Amino acid sequence: MAAVLEVEIGGPVERDVEEVDLSRLSPEERWRVEHARMHAKHRGHEAMHAEMVLILIATLVVAQLLLVQWKQRHPRSYNMVTLFQMWVVPLYFTAKLHWWRFLVIWVLFSTVTAFVTFRATRKPLVQTTPRLVYKWFLLIYKISYATGIVGYMAVMFTLFGLNLLFRIKPEDAMDFGVSLLFYGLYYGVLERDFAEMCADYMASTIGFYSASGMPTKHLSDSVCAVCGQQIFVDVNEEGIIENTYRLSCNHVFHEFCIRGWCIVGKKQTCPYCKEKVDLKRMFSNPWERPHVMYGQLLDWLRYLVAWQPVIIGLVQGINYILGLE
User: Fold this and answer.
1) How far apart, in whole angstroms, are the C-alpha atoms of residue 215 and residue 204?
2) For residues 284 and 269, is the Cβ–Cβ distance under 8 A?
3) pTM, full prediction
4) Which backbone phi and psi does 252 adopt, to 5 degrees?
């Protein structure tokens, strides 16, 4: 069988690989035949390939410039379209490839998130809604963080061959690690964008925050601008008793609320005066700082998840119109 697979790349084909019956080959031999067919198909098309690479580079540069301008001039519409694409584009590919496990998780996440988002956008805002929103998205954030770490470790263990200690095949171990890494990063990116949208709606409804312009209410020292509840509660009053945190601008918030605002809601300014928050001071514990770096990584990945498939599809359309294959 090995003699059938003898092909010289760049030279004459000794045996016609097109006549090989792939059903009779092992997976490794089938891959070698398909690899040889690909080289035979594209032999002599070097100039066309160079042109396709130039089209790809030019499209990436132009698309990046347009996206940056769109984000700067119309951030609200940019964020909404990006969120919609991150939510829908993977759904299309997973439905096409019949990845039912991902679809089940996607439906569960979308159902709960839709309910939470609905609560966050209602007017008047129920007093318990801000905490419900931050608790849900903080839970998803922690799960995605842990899932991504486990997936990354599984990939590293496989690359170093440690999977053999547990008698696990390399392809199975790598599939497991990559799948967990994908789940962690994808839902991490998605929940942060939903959380940011909900945080904007809730803060604007409460009145102590305005994305552009001045707040509609004056902030009292005894009120948390994130949830709108009293910070200090008397003995005979009903309210939430918890730790508080004072920013460098001297505004005081519930610690849970301001952490949710900065990490989950992707806000790095004071909810009231918009002074920049010192995240290093807020997360002085070294064990908490990876959460900040993980959040920054998710912000960078959202471009790849949302816009990279669109750009690649645009490049393929240009190549098709120009007759490039």
Assistant:
1) 8
2) no
3) 0.68
4) -105, 140
Q: How far apart are CA 221 and CA 173, in angstroms?
A: 54
Full 3-state SS string of the chain: CHHHHCCCCCCCCCCCHHHCCHHHCCHHHHHHHHHHHHHHHHCCCHHHHHHHHHHHHHHHHHHHHHHHHHHHHCHHHHHHHHHHHHHHHHHHHHHHHCCHHHHHHHHHHHHHHHHHHHHHCCCCCCCCHHHHHHHHHHHHHHHHHHHHHHHHHHHHHHHCCHHHHHCCCHHHHHHHHHHHHHHHHHHHHHHHHHHHHHHHHHHHHHCCCCCCCCCCCCCCCCECCCCCCECCCCCCCCCCCCCEEECCCCCEEEHHHHHHHHHHCCCCECCCCCCECCHHHHCCCCCCHHHHHHHHHHHHHHHHHHCHHHHHHHHHHHHHHCCCC
Q: Which residue has the tokens 């200690």?
A: 165
Is 288 strand, coil or helix? coil
Q: DSSP label at 264? A: I
Name the DSSP class of 126: P
Rounded CA-CA distance 176/157 in Å is 11
What are the beta bridge partners of residue 269?
Answer: 276
Q: Tokens at residue 219, please?
A: 């902030």
Closest CA to 149 of 290, 292, 304, 299: 290
Q: What is the mean pLDDT of residues 199-212?
A: 75
Residue 209: Cβ-neighbour burial (10 angstroms; 0-12, 13-18, 19+):
buried
Q: CA-CA distances (angstroms) from residue 316 to 25, 49, 56, 309?
A: 32, 13, 9, 11
Residues 135-156: tens digit of each pLDDT: 898 889 889 889 988 998 998 8
User: From CA 130, how far away is CA 121, in angstroms rounded?
Assistant: 11
Tens digits of residue pLDDT in 67-108: 888 878 887 788 788 888 888 877 877 888 888 888 899 999
